[in-house]
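Forwarding these from the shared drive since the link keeps breaking.
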Amino acid sequence: MKAFGTKLLLAASLLAIGACAKKPPKELPPPPVDNSAQQAPPPMNPGAAPGSQADFVASVAADRVFFATDSSEVDQPGQSTLQSQAAWFARYPNVRVTVEGHADERGTREYNLALGDRRANAAKNALVALGVSAGRITTISYGKERPDAIGSDEAAYAKNRRAVSVTVQ
């Protein structure tokens, strides 16, 4: 009798487990469609609006060129930077730019304003020579009033002797 009870309990368990089994759906969903070939390529600089200052900074070699002490001559690395900027400006012909001229803290205020002006105009002239319309470019000199690096050593001076291109929307 005990063996019959065990078999009955086992059969009831198997029926209960079988009742809980998942039944396959009558109709299967369609297979996934591969849309990877139809999707547009991601933007070059995700998060930056095309033609914006953020896009400009992310797309060009640099937004600034650096100068030697008391110089407003654009050297070869500066030329390369301005070439990449000119290429970006060619892609966005409606974007205007302000070139800011800066100097380090040495020298009088008047001298540094004049030096910053020469640096901004040197960068502007290089951009014009690379095909950017002069009408799109304005210049301003901040002299030593807006330093990029704080300090009174050569490393800080080198960072502050610069011309910075800032797009104008």
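-- next protein --
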Amino acid sequence: MNKQKRLAKPILWAIILFVGLIVSILTAITFGNADLSISDVYSVIGYELFHFEQFQAFATGATHDIVWLIRFPRVILALTIGMGLSVCGVVMQSVVKNPLADPYILGISSGASFGATLAILFGIGSVFGANAVGVMAFIGALITSLLVLLLANLGGRTNLTKIILSGLAVSAICSAFSNFVIYIANDKSATVQIMFWLMGSMASAKWHIIAVVLPIMLVGTLVFWSQYRQLNVMLLGDDTAITLGMNTQQLRRWYIILSSLMVGFAVYAAGVIGFVGLVIPHAVRLVFGSDHKYVIPFSALVGSIFVIWADVMSRIVLRNSEMPIGILISLIGAPCFIFLMIRHTHRAGGK
């Protein structure tokens, strides 16, 4: 009976969040610059998903293209990115035992953007075919994450300050190299495209991109969810984990590689979007505690809903224009980061 009571609350929240996600998807599709009626929007969705004959008139035309080729993939991409970045934030915070860690703070997003910039401007990695940008973004993210851990371990045991400073330093280096590459490329049209991409946007959402990125995020999320016991033990420290027979170093490497893969393809699809992996896990922990059995799936759901609505806000906050979603989320995430940093410092006695 007690076990049933303990499970009742998470199950109820899972249902609420899943329904909230479905409602968010269906509502977000109705927002856009084109003046379309809600019935037309859902008629297109009804035809494409269920092939209802009464919606045959919406099988082609401008309304169909706006809804099915622009708005719907955009919402699904926002869902995908929100899920992936939130889960990576949870894992990063456990792997480095640092509540302020996320792919953006640790410089992993900057490394991914540097790799993608090289692929776009100079065609580096073209051997990987149509997904060369995504693969180069993954390679950049992986190298950056390993470099941050290496720097943090220099000169003695790693700690909070060394990890954060290493991440900031590596992020600054990657950003500087990205800017240098853009400068020497001297391609104005590509520069404008890359600068908008570096600020984050769902505008490039296409079904063929989602077909690559969504499976990676789903599989990564499920793999990390299956590792919730190991992630819980990691939070207790390496000594405890080794006592329980865990090879923490090997697990840490695999988690970093998989996180880098997810972050790399998130950057490839939507550009650099920071603070999602920082804010969402902390918000979820405030409600559900620190057990990864619940933190990982609920972070995936909350992160998806958050980025979907952030993308809607980025489209409507400026008249006849679009604000890069990375700017909007940074305006929310940066104050949260400062708050968490001050809170953590006070808990640590100011050291």
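The CA atoms of residues 23 and 305 lie 9 Å apart. The longest helix spans residues 62-95.

- D.
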